[in-house]
Amino acid sequence: MRHLIQRISLYGLLIVVALLLSSHIFSQAESKTVRGIVRNETGQPISGVTVIEEVTNNGTNTDREGNFSIRVEDSNSTLVFSYVGFRTQRIVVGNQTNLQITMELGANELAQVVVVGYGSQKKKDLTSAITSIKAEDFNQGPIGNSPLQLIQGKVPGLALSRANGGDPSGEIQMQLRGVSTVKGNLSPLIVIDGIPGGNLSTVVPEDIESIDVLRDGSAAAIYGTRGTNGVVIITTKKGKVGAPSFQYNGYGYFEKYHNRVRVLNGDEWRQLKTDFTNSDNPILKNKAESIQDFGGNTDWFEAISQHKLSQVHSLSVSGGSQKTNYYASLNYRDIEGILKRSYNQISNYRLSLSHLVFNDKLRLEFSMANTIGKSRPSNYGLLTQALLRNPTLPVYNEDGSYYQTADLAGSNLVSQIYLYENDVKTTESLINTRATFEITNSLKFSLMGGLQRYNQIAGVYYYRNALAPVIGGTRDLNGEANRSAQLNLDKTLEATVSYDKRIGDDHQLSAVGGYSYQDFTAEGFGAGNRNFISDAFTYNNLNAGTALGAGLYRDNDIWSNKRASKLIAFFARAIYSYKDRYMLTAGFRREGSSKFGTDDKWGLFPAVTAGWRISGEKFMKGASAISELKLRVGYGVTGNQGIGEYVSLERLSPSGMMLYNGAWITGYAPSSNPNPNLRWEKKTEKNLGLDLGLKNNKIIINLDLYERITSDLLYEYVVPVPPNLYNTLWTNVGGIKNTGMEIAVTVNAAHTENFNWEVNFNASYNKNRLVSLSNDSYQTKYQDLAELGAPGLGSVYAYRIEEGQPIGNMYGFKFAEFTEDGKWQFWNEDNSKKITATEGQYEDKRIIGNGLPKYWIGFTNNFVYKNFDVYALVRGAFGFDILNVKRLFYENRKLIPSNILKSGLTSPVVDDPQMSDYYVEKGDYVKIDVISIGYTIPVKSKYLNSARIYVSGKNLITFTGYKGHDPELNINGLTPGYDKKENSGIDLLRDYPSTRSFSFGVNLKF
Amino acid sequence: MNEYKKVLIGSIVFLAMHTSCTKLDEQVYSDLLQNEFYQTEQEIIAALAPAYGGLRDIESLMEAATLATDETVIPTRGKDWYDGGIYLRLHEHNWQPQLSYFGNIWNYGFGRVNKANQLLFQLANVQDKVSPELYSRFVAELKLIRAFGYYELIDHFGNVPILDRFDVPKGFLPKNNSNFEEGRKEVFNFIEQDILDNIAALSDETNQSTYGRFNQYAAYALLAKLYLNAETWTGSPKWDETIDACDAIIGSGKYTLESNYFNNFLAKNEGSKENIFVIPYDGSKTDWQFIVYWTSLHPSMKAKYNTTNGPWNGLCALPSHYKSFDPDDKRRNGWIAGPQFSSTGAPLKCAYESVPHDLNLTVDFVNIYNPSDPATYNHINALEYHGARFVKYEISRYPSWCMENDRVIFRLGDVILMKAEALMRKNGGAATQEAVDLVNSVRERAFDDAASHAYTTTSLTLDQLLKERAWELYFEGVRRNDLVRFGKFVRGTWEFADRSAEGNHQNVYPIPQSAINSNPELIQNPGY
User: What proportion of chain A, given as a percentage, has pLDDT over 90?
Assistant: First the structure.
């Protein structure tokens, strides 16, 4: 109910704002019909040219003879003529009723404006590797709640992975141009409307105008400190001059897990008991008795999952005059998870205003976005338990109560859902104010202030009769409640001076300089209590519990903390172009971070690029097939400071208790080895690029080669315990080298009156090498990572990072064969002898795979036939391996009486799980990810300008040899391709299923 | 011209901001900066606390000291407890420097050494903040903690770098002696000197103020242990010195043997008159640091003891160890075997491969539910009910993940046996009457009919004394050390593995690979 009121009030606000702003803009005038013909420079009529009236967005196409006819509002209307390969034209109608239009050949695509950070450039003038994607080119179909899915598969070198499957609260993983850092920030910097470090959750996909990805270091260096993993610049929609134009987008979708992991069902379980009883293998024969039949046949995965409709609605209005314009939107998303009761509900409203004052010299801009969220996160642990739980256990007793069993089987999964509350409520705002003063025509001063506020309050409650799973069984809780609150506040202040001037015909100079101040604080508080007399309070009355009062205190029962950091920077950049053929850009950012050692806080991040538009040269006049040819080179340095606060300081923290004179006192000890010399991680990148346009730019090819070298790698290095207090230290030691190639091809494959077909293909290749983990003071040849853990593989690691090797190496035994009774035989060091795991020594283990994809592709097709449109996205990754952890543990009959994979019935293994290449599989995949089919309803109505309906499917078909659930996995960090055990000290294979979804949607314009 | 004026003004505004907005000092809120600490006596005591608190992380060392011996084993049970073979390798004496236990012991030993060195360094700077008596006592205690760390290091690794200070130059990497024997002697001398130099400054009280801390008697006990092993470690026996150190404790009259052996291991064992040095634990304040209850017992036994968290079914007695006890020896009750019942008397059930049978813990590794089972059961393949479990420490309703018994490190029973051993060794290995009386004084409480189980000068041989030490001191962290001193550790003949090919170099563990990887100056022990 409260939610409804909230929504109504939001809608109310929007309407009021819209009315206020639009009232003075409405001017009534006579509408009229305009006719005309469109020709090319040689006088040939062009068919299929799009003619759109600005403001109303009414539109039509020219026919076979180039004729068109359109009804416009009045004489002030502007018509926009666009056609691929030609320059877009704007014509004010005036008194004319019959227009003769000549389209000039142009670089439509290349005339696009690209946001480059602290400014923008035309695509044709770019000298570094930047991909710009406008709203109309975004991925279609259900986007869920991560705006990055809009560009998945579209940016060469930007790998995006839905590692959390379809989790409605899950985030998408990003990786640009390989792994270039190990413990710093792993994701690109997100800049939202000029605010660096914006949270993606403050923007809804429908409000995004464009996404620009600065791929290479020479472009990212202007954001110096956080640019190592690239920069993703998000520009939200702004007001457009004209009468208010409303847009409604809505869609609903169903999600279903696909290719689910198949475990034994109740009947197969019962059959197994018979088979084991008759088995010749003594291990299996002995296990027969342990296969208990509780009489049921429960698909535990199905028992805990739901199939509910998710829905997204967004409504926006935009309009304004030359002086004042506005954009306002409301957005409501109700995303339902696969697990029962899991959901993520988000309401978002956004208002953006722009106003010109002082003779139009001063532009004031204001935007505010507010996100109100409510969710129940998915408990991944249940998904693991669903795999392992005895399938003959019923869910309910006859009287409807939960069927609970003895300790070890864990508590009933359905009861774990219903006897547990977990509510997370968030409010998040992003407020951005900017004043731009035009000092002269070419000189501007701009001041921007931004505020990003994240507020969360969460409540968790285990009911009195809930059994919490713990290692070795369950425990009674008698009611356990926890609350926590978090407040993050990021403040940004930026001042920039920009200068833009064309001197004569040949010289174009633009320069920008500025200062940036950012301040981040995060504070949190939490409390808990246990032993409640009633479930009535849930988490709303912590006082009512008796555990705290009785002195049954645990470390996490009450806590609070606060931390803060700052970033301050000065930056400048100049872009010079001579005769539009020779381009030179040079810039730097000098930035300081509070996180580093006293004398090492400041870093310098320079960049220089040059471009040569060869197609502008006289000698290219003859090569008519080549419409555009440009060579680019770039060099840039970026940094990384993505580590925790205070690491360089000598801090003390509570460290264990001591019995002192009969009472326990809290001890204080150094928190970690301090490192006063901690400094920036730096990455230098060289980029060589080529842009080629063919056939009037109907084919555009962008090619980039890069080499990025990371030095002073921030990592928690292993240090000798004497003399250090602890065996790890945050310091700058090693280096990583990435080299790669990227290609993007855009083709206008067909363009006729009724049929338009655009193809976009991109591919990238990356090679990665960990150059070093050592220096004079610290030596680390290798480090083992990802302990497999229980059951039975504690102290066994799956991955190894090693000097001179690529990141992502899997490490273990090489499989030889099975003995007749299903025991492992591995090869020894020189493959001369077969050994058991126990006989195996450390030398017998080796590199057995690598989980980091070397090749990525994305392939988009966009067809329009008459009123129908079809969009298809195919993407893939190649050249990597996956460690199939589920097979490793559960494709093994020795694991009975926990349930096993069905493939375990035929697997020869009857032995303890072992880490070997037997479970390393090729991960290569191609996905037909999105297919969307739309139909534009021909409407001519006073109230409705256009209407389109569509259906789409997502994650439709995956072609892969991988036997597991989905080869799209974790790509970040040091253990890529790990399917998918998170070692939290608890025996769980945490794995959210990847889902396939089908949606139906409507776009309406008023 | 106007344009440039504006640029100029803009620049001035800009520069003004430059000077005022470039401060990057870190503001701390929920952290404590070291240079703001150590100001009051209370803070200094709080800084000292982790030196003792760190002693609690001894579980891994305790496990390694018993799992490699004739006392215990953690067998692979079904899918559990294989863990890369770390337990099997200890049991089989088939180890390499990578074995995680070695890194744990190394970090434990040097953790104590470093912690003590750090506090000694910092304490010296704030000497004026505490009373001179407190200061000298703190210094002495820290040096004893350092000596304790080195005692474990010399015992397990032999030749380790000697580090007596915290303020080392940048890039300093500690070295051990290139000659193993010489190096071990140097470490021995260092420990001996540290104890002797500081013993007088320690408290001689045996009350709350020294409980869980080094008093003079705890220091003598450590000294006695050092001297007892002198022959093994340096080649030169120190039997008289051992006897003197033991006598300093026995003769003080401040400790007496508990009439009931298990009084020393109660959940509230603070009252023991026999324990000289304990590491205190608390059920809710010291999480995850004393966990042998969980490591050993069967999960169904949670219903027997009504603990909050159920155990994990690992560690158990080797059949030969259990059977070596005289059936009348009450100390054997620290191992539990046979059918198990809940606190309300209901039979407990198996929970893994032997479901749905009743839980009947067997001493031997045999299939009692299917006698015709052709499978061999051993340390690599054990059933869930195999092996007697460890209940020497009283089990209470542990509310969290830590036992609340205080862990016994030195106690009078051990000191008396040490003195007896020194007397016998001084006497060419034969028992003197004094030695016999000493051993009997410890042994008599274990039997209702003590007289018939008493030793004589003929029945008490060194071999018998080694057995007596197992019965008295099992799982108290001394077994490996004892077997090495008696020459029975390498090529040990107890069950489940053939160790006959083992070399003498395995009397010490290898320096852990993790330590060598991060410090290339370290020289690996000979033979590894």
Answer: 43
Rounded Cα–Cα distance for residues A377 and B516 (Å): 44
Chain B residues touching residue A793 (CB < 8 angstroms):
82-84
List of chain B residues whose C-beta atoms are within 8 Å of the C-beta of residue A407: 299-300, 302-303, 310, 351
Domain count, chain B: 3
Contact B518 A842 (CB under 8 A): no
DSSP of B240-254: HHHHHHHHHHHTTT-
Domain extent, residue B366, equals 281-405
Query: How far, in Å, CA of A787 to CA of A794, rounded?
Result: 6
CB contact under 8 A, B518 and A718: yes
Of A289, A668, A720, the CB nearest to B32: A668
Q: Are residues B177 and B34 in the same domain?
A: yes
Last residue of a domain, one of B405, B423, B458: B405
Separation in Å, CA A952 to CA A334, A956, A994, A1005: 18, 10, 17, 20
A737: its two tokens: 């080298």
How far does B85 lie from chain A, in Å, by closest CA? 6
**pTM, entire model:** 0.84
Residue B124 lies in a domain: yes
pLDDT tens digit sequence for B404-437 = 999 999 999 999 999 999 999 999 999 999 999 9
Same-domain pairing of B324 and B468: no
B286 and B275 in a common domain: no
Separation between Cα atoms, residue B144 and residue A324, nearest integer Å? 78
Angle between helices B239-250 and B412-426 (to 10 degrees): 150
Question: Per-residue pLDDT for B145 more than 80?
Answer: yes
Order of strands across the sheet that contains A920-922? A920-922, A881-884, A978-979
- CA dihedral B331→B332→B336→B337, nearest 10 degrees, is -160
In angstroms, what CA-CA distances link A712 with A186, A618, A807? 16, 47, 17
Rounded to a whole number of angstroms, the CA Rg of chain B reads: 27
CA A501 to the chain's CA centroid: 38
CATH number at residue B521: 1.25.40.390
Report residue A651 as tokens.
Answer: 């801090």
> pLDDT band at residue A299, thresholds of 50, 70 and 90?
very high
Q: Tell me which of B405, B435, B457 is where a domain ends.
A: B405
The CA distance from A725 to the nearest CA of chain B, in Å, is 6
Angle between helices B412-426 and B216-228 (to 10 degrees): 40
Q: Strands A98-102 and A32-39, how do they pair?
A: parallel
Residue B505: inside a domain: yes
Q: Do residue B178 and residue B191 come from a single domain?
A: yes
**Do residues B34 and B151 both lie within one domain?**
yes
Torsion on CA atoms A89, A93, A95, A98, rounded to nearest 10? 60
pLDDT higher than threshold 90 for residue B228: yes
d(CA B51, CA A549): 31
ipTM above 0.85, yes or no: yes
Same domain, B181 and B257: no
Taking the mean position of all CA atoms in its chain, how far away is CA B155?
A: 12
Phi, psi dihedrals of residue B233, rounded to the nearest 5°: -90, -30
Nearest to A721 among B284, B312, B515 (CB): B515
Q: Is residue B432 part of a domain?
A: yes
3-state class of A177 per DSSP? Answer: coil
Q: Which of B5, B30, B137 is best to mutate for the A interface (most A CBs within 10 A)?
A: B30
CATH number of the domain encompassing residue B423: 1.25.40.10
DSSP strands (E only) in B242-332 = 275-279, 316-317
Tokens encoding A163? 């590692």
Same domain, residue pair B426 and B483: yes
- On whether the CB atoms of residues B444 and B415 are closer than 8 A, the answer is no
Of B282, B302, B353, the CB nearest to A473: B302
B342 in any annotated domain = yes
**Residue B163 shares a structural domain with residue B108:** yes
